[in-house]
Design goal:
Rossmann fold, about 400 residues, 16 helices, 3 domains, alpha/beta, six-stranded mixed sheet, 16 strands, about 20% strand, four-stranded antiparallel sheet
Length: about 400
């Protein structure tokens, strides 16, 4: 895959019903009031027996054009919750829309975070195009995408297209030349110590607001129901329960403490921490790394067995690699790392550690398809070389 085309679902590819109008239609069709306060997190908002949900013709034509572009993967990336996958897949099926992947909301990850992961795990990716309505040009939604621009590889072109009521226009573009110009400005690394991290660094209003808007929040509600024996209550009733809010904040602090404790045990006396990264790459990856490779990405794991190759290609001309390195703990973005490890959906399974961009990295060990190659002639050419996150 050399190109990635990313399409948002609601308001971009699909002309899905908005909350206010949708509730009116619901009452007209059923004779009853819409049964929930929320909209976007409810399967009723995608009920095809009530709503005639169709794609925007211009955007569908663009999606088909992207599908026919060589070496291009087309995905749908939506903030809808994972539990709504059946409804989304049914709408796509009804409208004969087929894409390479459908990615729904996972924990606290933003859309830009997911795109950056895909780029990190696909070494041959050279262009990313995004089509999104950005929730009517909401600054926060735009920032989800723009915040990663300086973290993408220098040779990756990154274009953002605004979709407004089915009309497409280029909103922002960046390419390798712009990244190279900015390289000197951004050629530094931040520093942060896990020991200096506090609740206030992570459990701030923005984090809590984002969490409450995600599918993970429902998991917290389920836990509270179970612990308090309140399984018969509706989610809205739990949110208004007199003890829920204090329980919720205490639970976040407990998850924060647990994540810090687990990762702290991995930091050595010299303040270093071993990290691993697994990827699926092109068979020419190693020769490229030897000749001109520079960046190895910011997404790693602090547990070897938790390192997995996400978003990569399998089989054919691709192979699985596992890199081991060791970095000073001050080069770890601990705010993002602890937040990810607090996630109910992602934390324990992935044991993710996120580095600051341009952190210096030495390769200690390199396996290709489970075969150690660091002491081979090719391996000797990289083990003393300094790469960067």
């Amino acid at each position: 895959m050399k190109r990635l085309a990313v399409f948002d679902f609601d308001g971009t590819l699909i002309d899905s019903p908005e909350k206010e109008e949708g509730m009116k239609v619901w009452k007209q069709k059923t004779g009853q009031a819409y049964p929930h306060k929320g909209w976007w997190g409810r399967k009723e908002s995608l009920d095809t027996s009530i709503f005639d949900i169709k794609p925007f013709p211009n955007v569908l034509a663009q999606l088909d054009k992207e599908k026919n572009t060589p070496d291009t993967d087309v995905i749908i990336l939506t903030s809808r919750m994972e539990k709504l996958r059946p409804e989304i897949e049914e709408i796509l099926r009804i409208n004969d829309i087929v894409v390479d992947d459908i990615i729904l909301k996972r924990g606290g990850e933003g859309k830009g975070d997911i795109i950056l992961k895909i780029e990190n795990y696909n070494d041959d990716l050279k262009e990313i195009v995004v089509y999104d309505d950005f929730m009517n040009k909401d600054a926060g939604k735009i920032a989800e995408y723009t915040k990663i621009q300086n973290q993408l590889s220098d040779d990756v072109r990154y274009d953002l297209y605004l979709v407004d009521n089915g009309n497409i226009s280029l909103m922002e573009s960046s390419n390798g030349i712009m990244n190279i110009i900015n390289e000197e400005i951004n050629n530094f690394i931040n520093e942060m110590s896990l020991h200096s991290l506090s609740y206030d660094n992570v459990l701030n209003k923005e984090y809590i607001d984002n969490l409450k808007a995600s599918d993970e929040f429902e998991r917290f509600i389920e836990y509270f129901k179970y612990e308090e024996g309140l399984e018969d209550l509706e989610d809205e009733e739990i949110e208004n329960h007199e003890h829920f809010e204090s329980w919720f904040h205490d639970e976040l602090k407990m998850r924060f403490d647990s994540a810090v404790e687990k990762i702290s045990s991995k930091i050595k006396s010299d303040n270093s921490i071993d990290i691993w990264r697994m990827m699926t790459v092109d068979k020419n990856w190693l020769s490229h790394l030897i000749q001109s490779g520079k960046h190895l990405g910011v997404y790693w794991s602090w547990e070897e067995n938790a390192a997995e190759a996400h978003w990569g290609k399998y089989g054919g001309n691709h192979q699985t690699i596992l890199i081991q390195s060791s970095v000073n703990e001050n080069y770890v973005n601990w705010e993002d790392t602890i937040e990810l490890n607090m996630s109910i959906s992602l934390g324990e399974a992935e044991s993710e550690i996120r580095l600051f961009k341009n952190t210096p990295i030495k390769i200690i060990s390199l396996e290709i398809n489970n075969e150690q190659i660091i002491d081979t002639p090719e391996g000797n050419q990289i083990k003393n070389k300094t790469f960067y996150a």
